[in-house]
Prior knowledge:
This protein has 330 residues and is of the alpha/beta class. It contains 11 helices and 12 strands. Helices cover 39% and strands 21% of the residues.
Amino acid sequence: MDSATLTQPFFSVLILHWKGAVLLQRCLKSLASQTFSNFEVILVDNGSKDFPASLPEYIQQPVKVFHLPENLGFAEGNNFAAKHASGKYLVLLNNDAYPFPDWLAILNRAALSNPGHFFASRLLKASDPNILDGEWNVYHASGLAWRKNHGSSVSKSHLEPREVLSACAAAAAYPRHAFDSVGGFDEDFFAYMEDLDLDLRLQGMGHSCLYLPEALVAHEGSASTSVRSSFALFHGHRNMVWTFIKNMPGIALWLLMPFHLLANLAYLFASFVMPGGKALRQGKLAALLSLNQAFQKRKQVQKQRKVSAWTLLRKMSWNPLAPLVKLGFR
């Protein structure tokens, strides 16, 4: 069916652009090669300085372009894009992510078979497709988070679909009604861990996440901001605390608080000998000064939760050695 005759696209693909015009061109070319055509593109110029003067003619699907005067961040920028989307599902795609041709077709089949679910893709390193950029977001009981098998050989991939806790928002799909029901991303996060926060709230409302290993996307990773930049360290470590306070269900918040404090202290001690350590400490201080705000948000999140605490807790990582592997990798 010609996309022009469609009354409502199945997918709205949301792309934020802040920097990397060459990357964006490759991203759009990958979308143009999709075997599934019932989608629109919501392209947001997030206060960039290198937005293309014109879009490539090979894109046949409708493209809505919005120009923002300043960078609103990943969270608010995607919320803005979502408000202008008309698809049944919102598909988040980083401008440095390049989906394989059958990516949307696989997401479509999964959505039709698993209503109410949201979906995680398998990310490969764009520079070396034999290396995984990650499979899904792992959330540890201490409040630490990381991408499953990030930096590992693709041979370690999980090859069967499975329910997981969270999807990396570099390439993920959400039912529009589910996204709206939890208010979308928390815009105070700006960037980093905002996807995990969203997914924990969705899980609490009874929406499960399905990892689709066949849904392949090549990802540059940290193309806009380095993973070790002061920006990333500040926001990542502030948001780490916020995510734990807001989303750790029930009495588990207090039972696991000592382990969360220990994880934060470990990072604080390490910050005195690591590059960018000052930004990390500033992030922790910002989290400390905003604890009251985080607890106020917690009340609303826990009030809306429809599933048991155990339903959430069993999807987290409880391996006491896992944080050591993460810290060692970092």
